[in-house]
Amino acid sequence: MAKLMYRDAIRNTIFQEMQRDQRVVVLGEDVVGGMGTAGGPEAIGGIWSTSTGFYEAFGPDRVIDTPISESAIMGAAGGLALAGKRPVAEIMFADFIGVSMDQLWNQIAKFRYMFGGKSVCPVVIRMPCGAGYNAAAQHSQMIHQFVTNMPGLKVVMPVTPADACGLLRQAIRDDDPVVFLEHKFLYSMTGEVPDDPDFLVRFGHARLARAGEDVTIVATGMMVGYAETAADDLAQDGIGCDVIDLRTTSPLDEEAIFDSVEVTGRLVVVDEAPPRCSLATDISALVAQKAFASLKAPIEMVTAPHTPVPFARELESAYLPSPAKIAAAARKTLEYR
Amino acid sequence: MQLNREALTRAYRQMKLIREFEERLHEEIQSGEIAGFTHLYCGQEAVAVGVCEHLSVVDKIVSTHRGHGHCLAKGCEVDGMMKEIWGSQEGLCNGKGGSMHIADIDKGMLGANGIVGGGAPIAVGAALSSKIDGPDANGRLAVSIAFSGDGACNQGTTFEAMNLAAVTRAPAIFVFENNHYSEHTGDAYAVGTSRDIASRAEAFGMKVWRADGTDFFAVHDCMREMLEYVRTPGNGPAAVEFDTERFFGHFEGDPQRYRGEGEIDRIRETRDCIRKFRDSVTGAKLLTDADLDRLDAEALDAIENAVQASRSAARPKAENVLDNVYISY
């Protein structure tokens, strides 16, 4: 085990997979950085420092620094994959998926099914996402809600450095397109990461971040930490919470949610995205449909409001779910009778 | 054409206002009072002002993430902009937008933009609207300007916008400000047409211009010719590439390791549009150093007042999150 930052866990995992498999290539804006400048290649090494040293180790054929052209990045990743490579593409901010949506949604996501199962498309699209930096409406968004809705994509949202490593390795070795969502606020978090170069975390298996028998809290991304803080606060009052980190929203570990709700009878779903047609509503619907008899109280959802992400500090704080809002929602389920 | 004293004074005042606005932000950001990402326009002032000095309120502009200069040049209020960047409820966008999303529709400023390449299609839409409205009493069309950089010139949206404007003969002007860096990457690497952006517009059949973007007079002359052409019904769009310089990083906090040794000192020394303007007008005895010093002081005062006003301006409240929506949940 080594103690690593989340960003370094990601960097190291891609690096190891590039060493292991010649077919793994990286592409994206400034993933090298400094190309065509006096400072020269690798002046940046990716704005998130997740590709530092790659260009020096693997060269320009396998570490492809692209112009600002998200549509071409996305589509080229699809083409590389159809031609036998295993691209790991970076869209610098998840928000920029908007520019590249056709290549993801109409092309990459559909190849396997639309071509009658005759193709595989082993693409990983890494996208830093989420609010918390006052980066405003076009640099702060969550996108898991709509990529989870797209048949053909696997959607991964690692929270711990170990999961960032194991899930990313699984994503790179996976034969299907994977949208890999790294919450920007998690990059500097540290944690133990297994040294095993074949350490994998399988998709569709949630992680129990806190265990308790009174309320189930389901969360993803940065919201998992918020839910843990809420659970710790509630524990002071003798309230025990299961905090379920979904890890992947497609495939979804329904059983982990049902098993927990069967014990607690109370569910709070936390989602950084707006509330309608969301992961929060989806999980609420699943539980209402398939675990109705377990419920002792109405399901609570703690989400962002149905607005773009606002800029000002006070507004962004009000926009985001908070540990206090999550704890209040949990207490509300306990007060129901 | 020779500019009169009044026009020269106005142009210098605007350039200097932008310069001081950005230099002050560069300092203030380090104090931590200003949140979010800020991309400074320092070094490119002659472009924004050389373009916008020709425009009236009926003309539209669409800007970029590096938009403060375009906003000020198009007439956005200094205090309202500064307050917006401070995240105040009194800001031009009530603190909702911030540095990257300043807009003032009444002034014909249709928005800065957080998405590289996001603006050009919007500018074409505004140009098509002008075409529908038709020429004014003098037979001239309102125009729409798409400001883009050497980064945005590589986006499909920009290519599509140019083609749409060309085939519809929309009165749009694509202003490419080549500051030689798309974020952290050089135009020598990223701009495939041998660093020549104007040739791309030319390939769509557009009439193009090229000029030194650090020379206010070159920009201003060039825009006069372009506007003469584009305001004439039936001619359609045009494009221009201005060779310019970015004095600061891509964003505030960028360590700029991609810069060459002494590069910033060199461009500030030899490619400073404000210094060149000053040398030019004093050399020709059109304005005196005393005239310009007075304008410098006015700019500094205006910025100081805007900063002080921003510090004491009303902050947004949590409930303001749900303002400006048509449904609240």
From TrEMBL, chain A:
SUPFAM superfamilies: Thiamin diphosphate-binding fold (THDP-binding), TK C-terminal domain-like. Transmembrane segments: none annotated. Keywords: Oxidoreductase. InterPro entries: THDP-binding, Transketo_C/PFOR_II, Transketolase-like_Pyr-bd, Transketolase_C. SMART domains: Transket_pyr (SM00861). The keyword GTP-binding does not apply. One of its GO terms (molecular function) is oxidoreductase activity. Residues 4-189 form the Transketolase-like pyrimidine-binding domain. It comes from the Bacteria. This is Acetoin catabolism protein AcoB. It comes from Novosphingobium endophyticum.
From TrEMBL, chain B:
The keyword Kinase does not apply. GO terms for molecular function: pyruvate dehydrogenase (acetyl-transferring) activity. Its cofactor is thiamine diphosphate. InterPro entries: DH_E1 (IPR001017), PDH_E1_Alpha_Subunit (IPR050642), THDP-binding (IPR029061). Keywords: Oxidoreductase, Thiamine pyrophosphate. GO terms for biological process: pyruvate decarboxylation to acetyl-CoA. SUPFAM superfamilies: Thiamin diphosphate-binding fold (THDP-binding) (SSF52518). This is ABC transporter substrate-binding protein. The keyword Oxidoreductase applies. It comes from Novosphingobium endophyticum.
